[in-house]
Amino acid sequence: MQISPQGKAKHISKCLELAILLEASAHKPGNVNRIIDFKSTSYEHFLASAVAIASSFECAAERGVLVSRGEIHVSDVGLGRILKNGIMDVNAWQHGGNTLLGTAILLLPIAVAAGMTSVKENIFEISKLRENLKLVVESTTSDDAINVYEAVRSANSGGLGKVSELDINDPDSINKIRAEKISLYQIFKIASKYDRICSEWVNNYPITFDVAYSSLREQVSRTSNLNAAIVHSFLRVLAEYPDTLIARKTSHEKALEVSLNAKQILKLGELETPNGKKRLRDFDRELRRAGNLLNPGTTADIIAAALALKVLDGYRP
User: Hey, how many other C-beta atoms are within 10 angstroms of the C-beta on 221?
Assistant: First the structure.
């Protein structure tokens, strides 16, 4: 059955909203989940955030549909404005602070790319979606960059640190972006040296597609336990790629130590063996002892993006 453009955008929005809900619900070590909250951020805050940002996903998907029909150019999507509006909605619907900024930065281009991609029986061609995704992020503008800076500030995001070039908290950064017409893609290319989400953007989401999504596909086909599949994929990404949020909040050495612990748990069989389960519980407690300084938040964002691809690919729990 052929899906209408409006129906396509709504469908994409539902897929991405479900991905956030599934990611937030899984018992990933060091993260908020259905059982354990942070001091000021709870599971309910993530649920509210997923609902609040759904309209922005739909808007992004609608813009992607217009691109596919030749009605607008991909550089006119307005990705930064959509992100800023989405974060404002999230802020209005919950009081748990920054819950979705990183996830939204990864998912909104996916929404646009999905809108540009053909769909058959509610299943998207993921390889074509990835091609479109590259086009979306490389076509961003200086207006997108300015809106994203404003979105990041409004999200009160922690662990940003200070950088020497185009610092988010430097008032002169906006003026320079506007005067020199620096695109969001160019800014993320600079930030990719120290931020994994920016690195995903400028390198066509290599960890999301080639590691996290690949792992989820394999694990979901092997077991009916979605939580176990998500936890395994989370640990696999964390083991291979030190979490840059942890690195900025503490140190690169501490992030490496966390990754080595994740690798050890994978070797022990994580949720599939008694030793793995015990070490996973201990690991979770260790990550929580320092408040949320050791929260592998960037890894969680990447898993949310991989889940979005899995749901767009037809998965239903």
Answer: 10
